[in-house]
UniProtKB/TrEMBL annotation:
This is Glycoside hydrolase family 5 domain-containing protein. Keywords: Glycosidase, Hydrolase, Membrane, Signal, Transmembrane, Transmembrane helix. Residues 713-736 are annotated as: Disordered. Belongs to the glycosyl hydrolase 5 (cellulase A) family. Residues 120-382 form the Glycoside hydrolase family domain. The chain crosses the membrane at residues 657-679. It comes from Chaetoceros debilis. One of its GO terms (biological process) is glucan catabolic process. Residues 1-19 form the signal peptide. GO terms for cellular component: cell surface; extracellular region.
Length: 736
């Protein structure tokens, strides 16, 4: 494991150093009908495509994908998501079934085309501005923008007709601003007709029904159900019982291919366009053969007219080499996109979040070898699920949030006070309609992410505490800085880059806002090549952590965790530990107390060391915790950037040394002066007659410190006959 970690670490270090901070220049080469069919395949400008195998050959591409993407998503702009811009959705609190919007489809349906378009234009005007694009560029790292769009913008249907008029004019502005400031743009078709995943981010949260009538005997609240019956109809009719599609909707798929063709035709000449992503997050039950065929057909459409565009395909929540390895092998400009979030993880220690971030580099490296270029198209710094409406308008997933959330004043509307429903009324409790989960404003306050607490050595270093850290005990800055550096290290040095989700948020959510994270110093400004990022995963890569059992958990839960760990390791009869100890695996099931703890430490650490590069965490059902080897934890240990600690240990700058020397000299002089004043009467008397002595005599404290002197305490000196000699003495008349 240490050898693998060392190799990955070195690869990341040199890979990051050799990577370019900016993406390749986009070459606009609009060549219509450059593809021709022959018996040897479909010939394009730089390569030949083979329909039967979904592969390519004879690639003579002029611009290989050699550079790193450092980007942000412009989420919540063209495809509405209530959690990103709640100011647009406060107006639906307290409304009935016919007048509630909870995604873009129902937003337009509830408001109608005229009012909906009026509000959307105000939103488009203020959510993304030229000043914001410039600020992103000036951050020093951002070189690309991922722009989520809806398919209705290019081929309108249903309630979108009229409601989204004018959207393309604003897209054109962003393309021009991006080009002006040296950024490129990846188009991401984020929302598809019929919904590709049932999320609100697909434009249409499918799998939905109003349940108000069912509950009216016990409550008059308006209620609905979504998560237990979520569905996705883009590729066909989904059977929830078998989790399969009973038929394929070829009309919807053709509609999507038509949208791709319209977009390529419209933007092929614009020099800011990096490429296109044909669908965002098709859910994991999408038939993989249908999805791959769609990806292939879309790729041919793009390459026919835009030969230099990148073509980015989401992994459908199946980031596995056996799914994507070899797909479209030899085809230029194809990229696999995976989304890596920690917001939905079980509550755990900061070390576990750090390790999870660093371990992703191994998975990315393996996919790069099996498939080709990989980007992390979405990630954030969130470590909990508390952001209001993250799982839907006035709704939540079952069991979420997993911990109590922090509440803060709901922000004023970003688009101005003319927006209906804003600001949130501080005099009202939670208002419907209510889903099956809870997330909503209460008396003018909105739920946001929890604080991380500073931890002392007097208690468990990852104990779950209150959502608000007391004054002076908030460690969020340290934890987020470390987590950001480790994620950037993992996503940059081993793949082809990343896009942070999101560029901004309506509520104060810096873990989801790149701009706020920059402002707080969590994400460094500059080109992100500094040593503090290059070496951010040093401890994790070199195995300086151990996975051990939590001593405060029930024995039965610990045994369940051990069973799980041993099961994944083929239930080996003998458990061998790093310290040389061995345990009979079957006997562990009857252990208790300290004996069980020692055996579980061994089982958990073996499991974690073996499987961490595959994505396993040190959690084991909440019975395990990750700790640094031979470490006693205090608050200071959590500013744990490896490079910064090395610098502190190795670099005492000249100015610091000079300051120490001068301080020592000054302190020594003061101490010597005090001693002389107290014990050398001649020196005391001489000083007393100076201006300094007269000033000092006015202070009672100084008089006591220097022996109680006062200039008037000394009369005229009375000399003896021997005053002229070497042994002359004098007497002093002391005033009584």
């Amino acid at each position: 494991m240490k050898i693998l970690a060392s190799v990955l670490y070195l690869v990341g270090t040199f890979g990051s150093a050799l990577s370019e901070a900016t993406t390749d220049a986009v070459k606009a080469a609009p060549e219509v009908d450059t593809a021709t069919k022959s018996g040897e395949g479909i010939k394009f400008k730089h390569f030949t495509a083979h329909d039967e195998t979904h592969t390519c050959s004879a690639d003579e591409h002029a611009t290989p994908f050699n550079s790193q993407i450092r980007g942000v998503n412009l989420g919540g702009w063209m495809v509405l998501e209530p959690w990103i811009t709640p100011s647009l959705f406060y107006q639906f609190l307290g409304k009935d079934e016919e007048h509630t919007g909870m995604d873009q489809f129902s937003f337009c349906e509830a408001l109608g085309p005229e009012e909906g378009n009026k509000q959307l234009r105000r939103h488009w005007e203020t959510w993304v501005t030229e000043e914001i694009i410039k600020e992103l560029k000036d951050s020093g790292a951002v070189n690309s923008l991922r722009l989520p769009v809806g398919d209705w913008m290019y081929k309108p249907y249903g309630p979108y007709i009229g409601c989204t008029d004018g959207a393309l004019d604003y897209v054109d502005k962003v393309l021009d601003w991006a080009y002006e400031y040296g950024l490129n743009v990846l188009f991401d078709i984020h929302a598809m007709r019929g919904s590709q995943n049932g999320f609100d981010n697909s434009g249409d949260a499918q799998g939905f029904k109003w349940t108000s009538k069912i509950t009216e005997q016990v409550s008059t609240d308006v209620t609905f159900e979504h998560w237990p019956i979520r569905s996705a109809g883009w590729v066909g009719t989904f059977d929830r019982v078998t989790a399969t599609y009973t038929d394929i909707d070829h009309d919807n798929i053709q509609h999507s291919l038509d949208v791709i063709e319209i977009m390529v035709e419209k933007y092929k000449d614009h020099p800011a366009v990096l490429g296109l992503q044909p669908v965002n997050e098709p859910w994991e039950w999408t038939p993989i053969d249908v999805l791959k065929k769609f990806y292939w057909d879309g790729y041919l459409i793009v390459k026919k007219q835009a030969p230099y565009w990148r073509y980015v395909m989401h992994d459908s929540f199946r980031f596995h080499t056996d799914v994507w390895g070899g797909f479209m092998d030899g085809c230029p400009d194809r990229v696999l996109d995976t989304h890596i979030y920690t917001a939905w993880m079980d509550p755990t220690s900061r070390e576990n979040f750090y390790d999870k971030a660093c371990a992703t580099k191994s998975k990315i490296t393996r996919m790069e070898e099996a498939f080709g270029p990989v980007i992390v198209g979405e990630w954030s710094l969130a470590t909990d699920n508390c952001a209001m409406w993250l799982n839907g308008f006035n709704d939540n997933l079952a069991g979420f949030p997993k911990l109590p959330c922090k509440y803060t004043k709901c922000t004023d509307p970003y688009m101005g006070t003319d927006q209906p429903g804003t600001p949130v009324n501080p005099g009202k409790p939670a208002q419907g309609p209510f889903g099956t989960g809870v997330s909503t404003p209460v008396f003018g306050e909105c739920p946001v992410d929890r604080d991380w607490h500073k931890i002392g050595a007097d208690h468990d270093h990852d104990k779950i505490l209150s959502p608000d850290a007391p004054h002076g005990h908030d460690a969020s800055d340290e934890v987020m800085r470390n987590l950001a550096k480790k994620k950037i290290n993992a996503f940059s040095g081993f793949g082809h880059g990343w896009y942070f989700w999101n560029f901004r948020t309506d509520l104060h959510e810096p873990r989801w806002s790149y701009m706020l994270a920059l402002e707080k110093g969590w994400i460094p400004k500059g080109n992100l090549k500094a040593d503090e990022i290059t070496h951010a995963c040093h401890k994790e890569d070199f195995g300086l952590y151990s996975c051990i059992v939590r001593r405060d958990r029930f024995d039965r839960d610990i045994i369940d965790g051990v069973k799980y760990a041993l099961q994944l390791d083929d239930n080996e009869s003998e458990l061998k530990c790093a310290n040389g100890a061995t345990f009979d695996s079957s006997s562990i099931m009857n252990m208790t107390g300290d004996d069980l703890y020692l055996a579980a430490d061994c089982a958990f650490n073996n499991f974690w060391k073996k499987h961490r590069v595959e994505g396993a965490t040190c959690d084991l059902g909440g019975t395990a915790v990750l700790i640094e080897v031979n470490k006693t934890y205090t608050d200071d240990d959590y500013e744990d950037d490896y490079v910064e600690k090395e610098k502190i240990a190795e670099e005492l700058k000249t100015v610091e040394l000079v300051t120490l020397l001068l301080g020592g000299v000054l302190l020594g002089g003061i101490v010597g002066f005090i001693i002389a004043m107290r014990f050398n009467k001649g020196f005391n008397a001489t000083v007393s007659r100076t201006n300094l002595g007269k000033s000092m005599s006015k202070s009672q404290i100084l008089r006591r410190s220097f022996g109680g002197f006062h200039p008037s305490d000394y009369g005229s000196r009375q000399y003896s006959s021997g005053d002229s000699g070497d042994n002359g003495e004098y007497t002093e008349i002391i005033r009584t």
